[in-house]
Amino acid sequence: MRLVASTVGAIVLLGAFFLMEDLHARILLAIWPQYPNALPFQGGTMWEMGVRTVELVLLSTLLCVVIGIPLGVIATRPRFRDEWAPVVDGLVNAGQTIPSLAIVALALPLLGFGFVPALVAMVLYGLLPVLRNTAVALETVDKAQLDAGRGMGMTPWQLLWMVELPHSIPVILAGIRTSAVLNVGVAVIAGLIGAGGFGTAIVHGIDLRVPPLVWYGAVPTALLAVIMDVFLRRLEEILTPRGLRLRAARR
């Protein structure tokens, strides 16, 4: 129930802001009266840009989870650890040094303009926190608990599902939260390659040197990032096993 309430609250708050397009525009034009014709933005309504941005962020984050968690699990299995662990470390280290703008720029000549290249760039950039946190979380599970599970006759798959993954949930969810918030920023940069969303207004505002147009896209983008972070942090608290929460509270 708490998760449902948090989800509904986040959707209502974000949707209400997207629908207050006229009020948002009036406030910005009151701050910058020297740009009377800057708004409303002709590249799309705030609702349209908001829906496109949310689509990009949610779909890219979902793909990061679907790809990153299985890769992290494979990289930590004894059978594959020697081969995959160096690959994961290399990807994480390389990904941390490449700016998001460079990844978007690399996707452009290969995939062109539009939604798909932006999505690919966001998945490539957001995959690393999920992959890294999954691998680190599984590697740091208490060895005594694993030994206890083996002593009870658990198979490797039972150990994974009943011991390792439950104890890794907080760290894995933290990686997913980081990935989602990073992808909000990359979605803005993706406006450079015609992905749509709030990035379109921000890019046009920078190009035309019109501050109210930049803020027209920047304010809801920042709000989306904050709501995403708060919601996923709440989800992390709810999904973390009670025993782990109590242990963390005692420290």
Overview of the molecule:
The chain contains 11 helices and no strands. The model has no long low-confidence stretch (mean pLDDT 80). The protein is mainly α and 251 residues long. The two termini are 28 Å apart. The chain has one domain: MetI-like fold.
Integer tally of domains: 1
Biggest sheet record: none
| Helical content (DSSP H or I, runs of 4+) | over 70%
Strand runs, count: 0
Give, in order, the helices and strands: HHHHHHHHHHH
What gross morphology would you assign?
elongated
* Low-confidence spans: none
Q: How large is the radius of gyration?
A: 21 Å
Task: Please give the structural blueprint.
Layout: H1 2-19, H2 21-31, H3 46-75, H4 81-97, H5 100-111, H6 115-139, H7 143-151, H8 156-189, H9 198-208, H10 211-239, H11 242-250
Helix pairs in contact: 1-10, 2-10, 3-6, 3-8, 3-10, 4-6, 5-6, 6-8, 7-8, 8-10, 9-10
Notable characteristics:
mainly alpha; 251 residues; single chain; MetI-like fold; elongated
Describe what is shown at a glance:
The chain is mainly α and 251 residues long.
